[in-house]
Amino acid sequence: MEEKEKRRAHPYIPNSVPEIKEELLKEIGIESAEDIFGQIPEHLRLKRPLNIPKAITSEYELKKHVTDLLSKNKNCEEYLNFLGGGCWQHYVPAVCKTIMERDEFLSAYVGEAFADHGKFQAQFEYASCIGELVDMDMVNTPTYDWAMACATTVRMASRMTGRGKALVAESISPERLSCIKNYAWSATPDIEMVKYDPKTGLLDIDDLKSKLSDDVCVLYMENPNFFGVIESRGQEIADLLHSKGALLSVGVDPLSLGVLEPPAHYGADFACGDVQPMGIPMSYGGGLGGFIATPDEPKFVAEYPSLLFGIAETVEDGEYGFGEVLYERTSYASRDKAKDFLGTMAQLHGIVAGVYMALMGPQGMKELGEGLLQRASYAAKKLSSVKGVKAPLFDSYHFKEFTVNFDGTKKTVAEINKALLDHKIFGGKDLSKDFPKMGQSALFCVTELHSKEDIDMLADALASVVGM
Amino acid sequence: MEDVKLRNFHQAHWNEPIIFELSVPGRRGLIPPAPDEEIKKEAGDAKNLVPKGMFREQPPALPELDQKRVLAHYIHLAQETLGANLCNDISQGTCTMKYNPRINEELAAHPGIASLHPWQDVDTVQGILQMYYEFEEILKEISGMDKFSLHPQGGAHAVYTAASIMRAYHRDRGELDKRREIISAAFTHPCDHAAPATAGFRLIILPPSENGYPSIEAVKAAVSERTAGMFITNPEDTGIYNTEIDQFVKIVHDAGGLCFYDQANANVLLGIARAREAGFDMCHFNIHKTFGTPHGCSGPGLGALGVRDYLAKYLPFPTVEYDGEKYYLDFDRPESVGKIRQFQGPAGVLVRAYAWIRAIGQEYLKEVSEISTINHNYLQKKLQELIPEIDVPYAPGRRRLEEARYCWQKLFEATGISTTDIMRRVGDFGLQHYWTSHHPWVVPEPMTLEPCESYGKEDLDEYAAVLKHIRDEAYSDPEVVKNAPHKCASHKLADESALDDPKRWATTWRAYVKKRGRT
Prior knowledge:
The complex is a heterodimer.
Chain A: H1 2-6, H2 18-28, H3 34-37, H4 59-70, E1 80-81, H5 94-100, H6 103-106, H7 117-134, E2 138-139, H8 146-161, E3 165-169, H9 174-183, E4 190-194, H10 205-211, E5 216-222, H11 234-243, E6 247-252, E7 270-274, E8 290-294, H12 298-301, E9 309-313, E10 320-324, H13 331-334, H14 347-384, E11 401-405, H15 413-421, E12 425-426, E13 429-430, E14 441-445, H16 452-466
Parallel strand pairs in A: 1-12, 3-4, 3-5, 5-6, 6-7
Antiparallel strand pairs in A: 2-8, 7-8, 9-10, 11-14, 13-14
Helix pairs in contact in A: 5-14, 7-14, 8-9, 14-16
Chain B: H1 37-43, H2 67-79, H3 102-108, H4 111-114, H5 126-143, E1 147-149, H6 155-172, E2 181-185, H7 191-198, E3 202-206, H8 216-222, E4 227-233, H9 245-254, E5 258-262, E6 282-286, H10 287-290, E7 303-307, E8 319-322, E9 327-330, H11 347-386, E10 404-407, H12 409-415, H13 419-426, E11 446-449, H14 457-476, H15 478-482, H16 509-515
């Protein structure tokens, strides 16, 4: 009893007030929780207190403790950041932050449409806006990230065609490739890579032709690709695949779609990508969410593993309601007989991306895209003015990312990036391990947050770092 | 209990148009920063920076709204959503709808996490890596596992990763072609059946015996040289603790399989019993359930996957390591299953979970489990006292731990009111719709409630009183229950079959407009 008397109620545990706990025990007719836990066999019980840190009970001290830890990090507001590659530092609008922090959305889960009507509508509007970006009619609720989204399109294509071989462009993100290999294994154990042209960074169409056979279900490529290069021969690629009864899946940066033709316009069957650049903070890579879009045809729809939120009329005149389209597809309904598996994924990020697209509108997306093209063009030229630096490595058009080659500086990317830290700059992603053929190259990203001054500062810092 | 006064509730009902209907040409919600004039001059017209034929002349037909209207629209939609932080969400059984502390949102918005890029030099992310490392240490102690991965973004994702590891393990031993069968139980979560199937396994799903979980004989009969492993929950959503769980594990181990413990229901076992003592090779925690992080309308969550030392080499890369002075990321893991998500997992969720466990600490973690089981047993007693029609099938006389699968069959037979009718009707009293059961409904007319430690006695009493009230209505005014909800943000669909009809379903506004012939 002595310990109980000393104990304060925990702010997160209302019934931890000792008197209330006692009252509940009395109502149940037991002495303590042990009377319930006693059914667990002795040899399965933990017979000692857990050795974990003591509670930090005051909110102030907790805040200070966690903030002190987070302050050990150097963040991209303190440093000038040129890293991208699937997690990008774009502007997060205030309205996006406000909606993301609303307790209603934040703390809701799988409630049905009458009680969580707003959640369903917000998701539906998110899907509707993605539909406009990619110019396709069927869009899923978000999956974990772009990697899971593109891997899912490979599995869907395999089921649709009954074929077990997938082609993947070598110019995609190595992390996404790793996910495809893991996730698609049981559907497409045979994955073959399609080369890129070492001069242009574009998909090597001759290599595609040589690998395209009657057992191929899909080609997955990205546009802009991982190197930031804008593919221009999408239609030719799509026609080739379709001539063999295979499908085309294209991963896109959604922010490019204000200025670039969406995959559907050059014959793609699937479009996929990540919602993170649309109003969601990077959070060390935590801000991801994957989208998939296809034509609204039963043969596609039947193969989605995701929840699909559909709109329909309610019993009230003029009222929209929502529900789940073809729920029997999902593993919530059909377990191991379902189309893949489903779970808690990234719905909040989808809602916020919907807010972002509504704020931006067509004109905002166009202006943003134009500005990114111009900044990337300027930045590549500017960096190329540094002796020994070649930017971009590929003779092609780039969207917001481009590769920079440092072979002429006789320094490694690792050395250069370490030295850039002294200038409070995060240099580009080192590609030398994943793409050794490219020598000492790095992937640089510029966004609307970069001013001319920032880009010039990078060039000056590089000049001083390479010391030439 | 006698004093409970039911709320005269009405949810916000804005009859909010779809955002495309609010669009007015020319309106702007946000202006992106334009490049400096010199950049524009240097780079030239953006159209010329794109390959021929790739410039999108007609921008996407997104809605055009002023900023206030966007904000108001989404606040309306938020108000039409019953988050757990604002309602009595005992309803969503198995989901552990805890309070999501506000301070954790403040912390997750700190630039020291929100503005970190995942590829920053490790010297610049020592704080977050320390948090990964220390949180993993805590999970290791709570579960008895030897190493954790915080890459999976939800529970099912962790289950899938475990299936990938099982695949790699048998492949390494040259037995993958032979070992393709996974044993599981009917009450185990659907993802434990679907995720291994996605990874290439076949499922053997065992029915419950009279105690609510499969019999030892059934497990013995299911194993063979084809057994890859077992995926199982304990307690299942029945709340019944499987006292023979270690024997299940032993039978599967003896047959050459591995055992994965789905700990979605771990909230009642913290500091009480661990995966290790039961012999499991792997387990996971739904951090968004057990560690108080938000469910976010279904993600991002975090499915922390723990493994014993002999499976650690298979975890997704990179892992977070500490050399005594510095934290670092280990990418050099040749036997890893690879990546199951990009980067290092949902780090923002980790920050919230870390803050939650530090606030709870050693002193209160066991209390979380004790209060959870006390809350449940109090609620079950109240419900059974007030509502004679409620049954709790299986294992009569045994106390459930954190939740129970109730059965409304008797009321259904007496009144024609089904569990889905009642589930809709609770919404009229400001409660989230309750969880019936995963499919298939082994228990008829099911209901699953989980009054975790975040709910006070008054919440439990309110919930019991609402269900009693609806039970009475089932006799006195069944139509009001059948046609519910009446006071929620929207009503029943006029025709549910529209959602399964290719001519009528629509997941986007553009599809809806086409199919309904609207302009």
